[in-house]
């Protein structure tokens, strides 16, 4: 972990406008590279937008976002998105088997590599041949996480990934994310669930009225 | 070639329009007015076109008039496509490009390889068949692709988030749109001759041309339409992908049709 720059993302007076409203209002913040950073806030506060700025699915109307010291607009977005993976709020299976889904991320990946990706998210590699759309909600979301891991990202953006899950699959997902963070993957986790924030966060930011403030450090036991 | 329709014959055929309007009245469909307006409009348009065509393709007239006619047809067809699918962004320029490309391909083959001699008499109707018959598929391809990318935005962005380039991320949806747009034409081509006798052939036979000759012309026209449809739809689809994604591989905001 020592060779990693301490800062993953840097926001400099970032503004996002929607129909004249400032969804993000001059956000200036440093997101550390280590561990799990949680961004909490109510629905509609702009959390998802903030996350989408990090892999350039959106670009700011004003200001700059940098990743590991480099402004994002100077980086090839396709390379950036393989370094900074994202799991969306709703699982998005592609047609076909679990293996087909994982192969979208890396068509030349071997079965061994695909199996490893499943193992990393606590899924049985025996599921590779199964139609992705027959998986349970929890498995589906972890498959999406595994699919992202196939690109071997340094950073994961998690956009309320457990909001549709029951307690047990939610717990498995949280444990999986913690394991990945312990393996050195930077995680930025957006949630409106304060209890979850306190379970998983190494540090928490609060997004409110377009402003991002540092809320707490190390709430995790 | 004496089997021509007289003005009286035309007037008598209007009885069929009366039958259609009568059925609408009897079944209380409320379509009588529309049926009569449609028939009158079609007749007026055809007469106008007939008069203009007589001028454009009369012997001795420069072929440039025919080319001008073709260009005007492409322009008009593009504006029709645009009006039929207002929810598809940038459709006017894309339709112009797609009909232009189809013209180059189809007219290039048919006239460049001397399937027909290049005269006003052949150029105008051939280009008309090409444009007219590929219009619906062009609208369908543009509309379907826009719908797919809007409705499956989550999926598209998941692909982009895995580092796929926009062209690659759009591929499954481009395929779906092209299949949907081309399938009706393929079905029509398959059924030709068995289920229905197409217009060009019927017209030729009625005008006294030998059936075999009419069949050959019709076959060429069918292939022309198939080639034109495939060309216009692929140009529309790939052009739309370029317009609906930013150069840095983001999917633009696509309003739902009700927003219009």
Describe what is shown at a glance.
The complex is a heterodimer of chains A (221) and B (260). Chain A is built from 7 helices and 10 strands.
Describe the model:
The complex is a heterodimer of chains A (221) and B (260). Chain A is of the alpha/beta class and 221 residues long. Chain A contains seven helices and ten strands. In chain A, the strands form two sheets. A six-stranded mixed β-sheet of chain A has the order 6-7-8-3-9-10, sandwiched between helices. The longest helix of chain A has 16 residues, at 167-182. The model of chain A has no long low-confidence stretch (mean pLDDT 93). With 260 residues, chain B is mostly helical. Chain B has helices at residues 7-26, 32-56, 63-84, 91-112, 120-151, 153-161, 166-191, 199-206, 211-244. Classes of the chains: A alpha/beta (221), B mainly alpha (260). Chains A and B meet through α2 and α5 of A and α6 of B.
Short key terms for the protein model shown above:
heterodimer, A: 221 residues, alpha/beta, 6-stranded mixed β-sheet, 4-stranded antiparallel β-sheet, B: 260 residues, mainly alpha, 0% strand
Oligomer: heterodimer
Total of DSSP H or I helical runs spanning 4+ residues of chain B: 9
Alpha-carbon distance between the termini of chain B? Answer: 52 Å
**Mean pLDDT reading of chain B:** 92
Judged by helices, strands and strand pairing, the structural class of chain A is alpha/beta
Low-confidence stretches of chain B at least 5 residues in length (pLDDT < 50)? none
SSE class of chain B:
mainly alpha
Q: What series of H and E elements makes up the topology of chain A?
A: EEEHEEHEHHHEHEHEE
Radius of gyration of chain A: 17 Å
Q: End-to-end span of chain A in angstroms?
A: 21 Å
Total helical elements of chain A: 7
